[in-house]
Here is the input.
Amino acid sequence: MTMEQYSSISLDMGGGGQKSSELISDIRKIIKDVGKWKNTGDDGAIFKIPRNAGNLIFTTDAFIIDPIFFPGGDIGKIAMCGTINDLSVMGARPIGISLSIVIEEGFPRDDLMKILRSINKVSQESGVPVVTGDTKVTEKGKIDKIEITTSGVGLAQNVIQNNGVEPGDLIIASGDLGEHTIALLAKRFNYQTKIKSDSKALDKEIEKVGGYLNACKDPTRGGLAANLSEMAEKSKVKIVLNERDLPYKKEVKAVTELLGLDVFSLASEGRFLASVSPKNAQKALKILKTFNREAKIIGKAQKAKNKQEIGVYFETELGGSRKIESPRGKLIPRIC
Here is the structure.
């Protein structure tokens, strides 16, 4: 009996017996192995690390998203891209992903297949295989539809750390920000917008430009405010952004104002922020524009005069200035 005979996921598919095997078998039919890993059908996958491979970098993330399908992607795409990007912004070449899925009893089979196809598409396009994982089914009402946890490993010869911002560095955004948050909220509240999630894997971009980056971070939860603030605080510098160069589309800012949100706190799932020395900034920008024409220089790092000046500042075209604080309190729930 194959999974095609079911319209939804039943509790016994998570019980470890024959129906569990059938579910896992159908999952493996969709998610194809594209790597050099061995024993991917065992309790753990094996990868022989080459000599002089550099540093092993390991990351993990959990995804509970509402809605699970949205313009530009779904929970499966986000889970893959999020973990690949966490490795990439540290200068690592992602080599393998672990995929853990917890499914609510009664979850539609067609929706699961759609999510799995999204996972496989990112895997095939990026060349990063899903090499191990786990699947569980829980009673109806214990979770909301589906939860996904992805862990990833990568190899890096030169690690990019987010404390590497130097005074004089220019700050680059790899594209316009906040579109992931706006796409999800528009879908959640049935608001009409053309904005789609910016979710995508960043490994190819950072592989091309990584040698120019002094520091790098992907602005997921907390957006530009939280992530640039972290970079500034760890690097002990003052980062100044210019109003005319802010990386947000007019429609994103309009929806943000309508919903009463802080545009600087909007999350992205396919963008990164980086600091680059002035001599390398235009080289890096030229490369990034081949991936996204919206890539731009948005500000500059300065030496902080004292501890209190460390942070991120926003300068208006009229000459005003204010500090951009890292978000506090409750952030927008379930967007990544």
Remarks:
- The CA atoms of residues 86 and 219 lie 10 Å apart.
- The mean pLDDT is 93.
